[in-house]
Design goal:
Layout lengths: L6 H16 L9 H11 L14 H7 L8 H12 L19 H7 L14 H19 L6 H11 L1 H7 L6 H17 L7 H9 L17 E2 L8 E2 L2 H13 L7 H4 L4 E2 L10 E5 L8 E7 L2 E4 L8 E4 L4 H5 L1 E6 L2
Antiparallel strand pairs: 1-2, 3-8, 4-5, 4-8, 5-6, 6-7
Helix pairs in contact: 1-5, 1-8, 3-4, 3-6, 4-9, 6-7, 7-8, 7-9, 10-11
Length: 333
């Protein structure tokens, strides 16, 4: 949590900068419908599996109920990334406990949540609940920026909300740019989802966030070296990522190319699109679809974009490039 090294002042600075950057001072809470949409887009559900250590499990579930942007599986993934579940962890910079709070940040967010008479970043209940409260605070801070609030809040957890607001997105710090996809991918390890469902497909897709694009690479079993310009890169191209997600999540075997995938399943209109549908893209007037991604809700898809990039989440609704493309929306489940 490198951001916590400066967050004795960053929390206050972030609030002030929020008003300066986006011109508002009051945050509006999400409606119940918004909460449901966020939960659906993640596909992680509200449960966790046995990979979460037993001593942490009740607190992870409780902290993961505080706001929809941080379901339990993401809370668990953060703890894994921050400390590998080490209750006594202390970083070289002085961050403490399983959630790796710096003392200045802890003084603002720590409480005696486990009721043992002390407030300590080394107490599991105190640490995890403080993490959840702080995560939700960060979600509120970055929400006016739009886009994927969870990713932006994770970036703020690592780099501080001031940096995210300054750059209007994930700041160009290598550590932070690696931290966000790592957490999102780790969340799949801890989610309790039913196989064969849309949620399982979305979790499988998210587990590959940050994996390189490789032309001709990947397939139902996972990433692999590709062909041509992808011959030396282990990863996925766009249609292989879709194959992987639907095979791993629902044991559905799909054709290999984006164009073929654009013609199987059931056609869906834009007004009826749901998380788990796929969107194939063709140039205007063209008959061949050249790209495909999985819709995750909130106007976004997860996809493997192009050589030099990685599996990522991209806003498609309202984006001038994607809106100019010809869409084929298909439902496989």
């Amino acid at each position: 949590m490198s951001g916590h090294r400066i967050l004795g002042v960053a929390a206050a600075a972030g609030s002030a900068l929020l008003a300066a950057v986006v011109g508002i001072s009051v945050l509006v809470a999400a409606s119940e419908d918004d909460d449901q949409a966020v939960a659906a887009s993640w596909g992680l559900g509200n449960g966790i599996n046995q990979a979460v250590p037993a001593a942490f499990a009740p607190w992870v579930l409780k902290a993961g109920s505080l706001c929809p942007e941080f379901p339990p599986a993401i809370i668990a993934a953060q703890i894994d990334a921050e400390s590998s579940w080490n209750v006594t962890a202390v970083s070289p910079a002085g961050a403490q406990g399983p959630a790796q709070f710096m003392p200045g940040t802890w003084s603002a967010w720590g409480r005696d949540d486990d009721g043992n008479g002390t407030t300590s970043p080394f107490d599991i209940g105190d640490a995890v609940m403080a993490q959840g409260r702080y995560d939700c605070y960060l979600a509120d801070q970055v929400r006016p920026l739009g886009g994927d609030v969870t990713s932006l809040a994770l970036a703020a957890y690592n780099a501080g909300p001031g940096a995210v607001l300054q750059y209007h997105g994930i700041p160009p710090y290598p550590e932070t740019q690696q931290y966000v996809p790592r957490i999102l991918a780790l969340a799949a390890k801890y989610a309790a989802v039913e196989a064969g469902t849309v949620n399982a497909v979305l979790v499988a897709a998210r587990s590959q966030l940050g994996v390189p694009y490789s032309w001709g690479g990947g397939g139902p079993a996972g990433p692999s070296t590709g062909v041509g310009r992808g011959a030396t890169t282990v990863g996925f191209d766009c249609s292989a990522l879709v194959q992987f997600a639907f095979y791993q999540g629902a044991h559905r075997i799909l054709p290999r190319t984006a164009n073929d995938q654009a013609h199987v399943g059931s056609a869906v209109s834009r007004k009826d699109i749901q998380p788990g549908d796929v969107i194939a893209f063709a140039d205007p007037g063209a008959s061949t679809y050249h790209h495909i991604g999985i819709y995750i809700g909130n106007g976004q898809m997860i996809h493997a974009p192009e050589t030099g990039d990685v599996v990522k989440i991209t806003t498609v609704v309202g984006n001038s490039y994607w809106e100019a493309q010809q869409w084929s929306i298909r439902r496989y489940l």
